[in-house]
Amino acid sequence: MRKPLALLFFLLVTPCIAEPPQPTDGFEWKLDERFSDEFNGSELDRSKWLDHHPFWKGRPPAKFDPSTLSVSDGMLRIHNRMLDEPEGDYTIAGGAVVSKSNQAHYGYYEARLKASNISMSTTFWMSNRSAPYGDGEASQELDIVEAIGAPQRFPNWNRQWKPNTHFFYTVNGERKGYSQNDSVALDPPSGEAFHTYAAWWVDANTVHYYLDDVHCMTVQPSTEVSPKPFDRPMQINMVTETYKWETTPTPEAISNDEINSSYYDWVRVYQLVKKP
């Protein structure tokens, strides 16, 4: 069996600059209401968000369960818990909030959140479905943050921010493609404090990543498969998951209401528009 083709990213890591992104000359940032929410109401805004993932039940043993979601005190809360009864391979209830629009495109994407303090993830990412490309099909994914507040297998994960950028290319049933993962120190840890995680998706070939309004890295994806690897619009995902590569939280941990919830203070998206 052939090994998947590994294609590399060209990663430019620059010193952190303590300032938010400056718009392109002649342009200014405009809030995109389709994907922005301060969570100031008493329930999820159904004009913007789904309370489930439209194409995915979740990775066992955690499924996406709408009952874990609530909005109060200016926060979106995902209350991770044990299922009352196992459902096949699923024993844990996580949650998913997904944008109704899948037309998120170039712009600035940021969310202020605090991860649960268990070994489940609290995430903010963008993705699209596979579409025909070349001899196969391709999809893209921008993982702005996959935080784990109390990691077990990789104990320092909660003290690192690891954005990912994926281009998946499938030919004759074999997935090929490339991914980039780099890290920046995170203090306080993700399960103990709120942080603002952001990406400026500049164009099909450039993504800048920001942590707490500090520019920390720039990614220029490989063009070996596609000259414009990130040119398609995406949907926004805010989900809590279990991972195969991370230890599943114990029932005692996930039942502890002091540590089992993920909190999103807000999500804001800006588009560049020409100045008047």
TrEMBL record:
GO terms for molecular function: beta-agarase activity. The keyword Secreted does not apply. The keyword Amino-acid biosynthesis does not apply. Transmembrane segments: none annotated. It is an enzyme of class 3 (hydrolase). InterPro entries: Beta-glucanase-like (IPR000757), Beta_agarase (IPR016287), ConA-like_dom_sf (IPR013320), Glycosyl_Hydrlase_16 (IPR050546). Belongs to the glycosyl hydrolase 16 family. The active site is at E141, E146. It comes from Novipirellula herctigrandis. PROSITE patterns: GH16_2. This is Beta-porphyranase B. It comes from the Bacteria. Keywords: Glycosidase, Hydrolase, Signal. Its EC number is 3.2.1.178. SUPFAM superfamilies: Concanavalin A-like lectins/glucanases (SSF49899). Residues 7-275 form the GH16 domain. It holds the Pfam family Glyco_hydro_16. Residues 1-18 form the signal peptide. One of its GO terms (biological process) is carbohydrate metabolic process.
